[in-house]
Amino acid sequence: MTTSYLFTGGRILDPRSGTLIDGLNVLTEAGKIKAVSAGVEAPADAVEIPLDGRTLMPGLIDCHVHVGAWSLDLWGNMVVPGSLAAIRAAKVMEEALGRGFTTLRDLGGADAGLSRAVEDGLIDGPRLITCGKGLTVTGGHSDLRTRGDNRPGLLSERVGSMGLIVDGVDNVRAACRTMIKEGAQFIKVMANGGVSSPNDPIHSIQYSRDEIAAMVEEAENAGFYVAAHLYTDKAIARCVELGVRSLEHCNLITAETAKKAAEKGCIAVPTLVAYEALALEGEALGLGAAEFAKIETVREGGLASLEIMRDAGLKMAFGSDLLGELRKYHCMEFEILARVLTPADIIRSATIIGAELCQMDGEIGVVAEGAEADLLVIDGNPLADISLLAGDGVNMPVIMKGGKMAKNELAMPDG
After folding, report:
1. pLDDT (0 to 100) of residue 415
2. How many CA atoms lie within 13 A of 56 on its CB side?
3. Per-residue confidence (pLDDT) for residue 75, from 0 to 100
4. Cα dihedral sign for 274, 107, 287, 307?
5. Which stretches of the chain score pLDDT less than 50?
């Protein structure tokens, strides 16, 4: 089977500079980018892909997904057989790859088995970076039990379960160590109230300082970091102070906190499409009045938060956080971000900044020698028209992940 491709006659998008570079060819071999230069010497069996002036760019990175959330019925996701939940997750991943996302960072639900299935070629999906389960206090975000439900646990061993209820510093340490032992590449904490959980208003602060500090220490001891679910400025500021690195959502952040987060090297992951999609279809899909009130609170602050974080110099990675049937709106995030950010900024968020958050700087999110061969061919220039990255891959005649063609409309397929 052919493993080598030569891309010729295109314009290479450099996310860091936000420019297109002419006159370079790109050779892929054994899943990596072998060479990027004007005079590439390709092996005789390499398949040439003439780009005819099209744009060649790195694969996209979505830094906030839940591939196990097949449905908005979060309990329903947990109670199905684990084998079915895993197959459903594989389908979600395949859909994302078809939109040009070659790496996904899962924020609760996926396990190392799904990552391994991609690596072993059993799933034709994006590379998967996982945290195991999101840690939640009793009654916090991800505790889906109603007030009268005293059943223990959240079926946390299942692929479809996004959270693990854990209280107390010692228990938190044990949970973090278990997650890391089982293959987690970062730790996720629910540090603020949420939309989809029944008992916690948006403004509620979750976990004590000591508990979060313990998570940060355990993650750093393993060479990883903590990502926190956050909406309110008070919760964000506290997590920044405690050493949390990845700030998810951040809809209600203030300029002062954004500046402090930038100074400490944090990365924010706004997920504005999640609230737009819920506003459009949440009622039809079963959300109640209380959930809708929460949605409007965070939705109203979304675009303002982008301006605040941009002006503070706080790095932002691309995220979606779409659950269940709403994942069809995945590409709408580009449209929403474009109301505030430039195409170059958006592309950086979905490439080099995402790579940094996945702890894969220089390996993904770039077209460079030695990097993973995650490549997209675009009909046009996304630096001038970001909508070319939307449309569920309609403007992407080629999608390559790890040197393997997921979509190829310009040359003969593998073999």
Report:
1. 43
2. 30
3. 86
4. negative
5. 413-415
Phi-psi region of 173 (alpha: psi -120 to 50; beta: other; left: phi over 0): alpha
**413, two tokens:** 């397929």
For the whole model, what pTM was predicted? 0.95
Task: Using DSSP, state whether 9 is helix, strand or coil.
Answer: coil
Contact status, residue 213 vs residue 235, Cβ threshold 8 Å = no
The answer to whether the beta carbons of residues 216 and 242 sit under 8 Å apart is: yes
Q: Which domains are seen in the chain, by residue range?
A: 4-59+366-408 (2.30.40.10), 60-357 (3.20.20.140)
What's the confidence (pLDDT) of residue 196? 66
Q: How far apart are the first and last CA of the chain?
A: 4
User: DSSP 3-state helix, strand, coil percentages of the chain (rounded to 5)?
Assistant: 35, 20, 45
Which amino acid does the sequence have at 155? L
Which residue matches tokens 């998967």? 128
CB 337 within 8 A of CB 266: no
Instruction: Tell me the per-residue pLDDT of 286-320, one tens digit each, with 9 for 90 and over.
Output: 666 666 666 777 777 789 999 999 999 999 999 99
Residue from 195, 282, 199 nearest 230 by CA = 195
Give 41: exposed, middle or buried? Use CB within 10 Å, 0-12, 13-18, 19+.
Answer: exposed
CB atoms within 10 A of CB 403: 21
pLDDT value for 286 = 67
- Among residues 29, 31, 21, 3, the alpha carbon closest in space to that of 57 is found at 21
- How big is the chain, counted in residues? 415
Asked if 127 and 180 touch (Cβ cutoff 8 Å), the reply is no
Beta-bridge partner residues of 135: 164, 189
Neighbours of 351 (CB within 10 A): 27
